[in-house]
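Entry 14. Structure prediction run on the chain below.
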Amino acid sequence: MSTCPVSVIIPTYNRALFLQRAIDSVCNQSLGCAEIIVVDDGSTDDTKELLSAMKAKSKTPIISIHTDNQGVAAARNLGINKSQYDIIAFLDSDDHWNRKKIEKQYKEFIKQKQYQICYTKERWLRRGEHLNQKRKHIPRHGDIFSQCLELCSVGTSTVMGRKSLFERRGNFDEMMECCEDYDLWLRVSARHEFLLIDEPLNVKEGGRDDQLSYIYRLGMDERRIYSIEKLLSSGSLQLIQYNLAMREFEKKILIYANGCLKHGKLEESSKYLKLLRSHKDKKSNVYNFPENFK
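Output returned:
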């Protein structure tokens, strides 16, 4: 089987039940990757034994790294730092790839050299049943900053990007227990266009109560407000981007603050309304970068 210089990074935590399927979906690609890096984030199930068995029989090099539990952001960052190749692809351990995912994505990515990052469409399953995506979730090509502000529009298991991109723009924010993907793709989309491969080449599994999107479902708005505030304070946005971010910042804070009021959290509501006022009152140091600024 021919291979390409791609490092595939798979973070995992107590997902032995799904991990083999994820790794097999990489090993069985029509175009192989150069290495699979599995970062075991402190699993207490049979993950270590499973990885030992898979490494022994796999033709694709599998590098397993076992750490104390530090969260998915730290696990992915460790994988990036340990990777040996110039192009990185991510796969969550409970997702799996179409057999031609790497081949189709890599060939198009290499051909269109003006892009630093590439992603694909994906199929969504909830408890094994197909789930239709709403129009707002359908991935877009090119400048996706406004969509990334509204929601997490980039499926991390669909992403292929140059390692140098992460070195320049920063990795996943390890302070975030969830929404670390929203945070990173928002920062990247402010400076880079995304190449979209218009095919569903990843299968995303959902609907389980062990997933971060379920565990932290009540705190996701708060974390996205945190991400937008970081960006507003960075001084790195063009004026039109700053205005878009400020509009979404206000929208998310008002929704969150009103929710706090309804649940009797008066201090929390007041804190976020004060945060909004502080950003509206202060003079913003906004730079107008040229359109081709990278």
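The two ends are 36 Å apart (CA to CA).
Filed with the rest of this week's runs.
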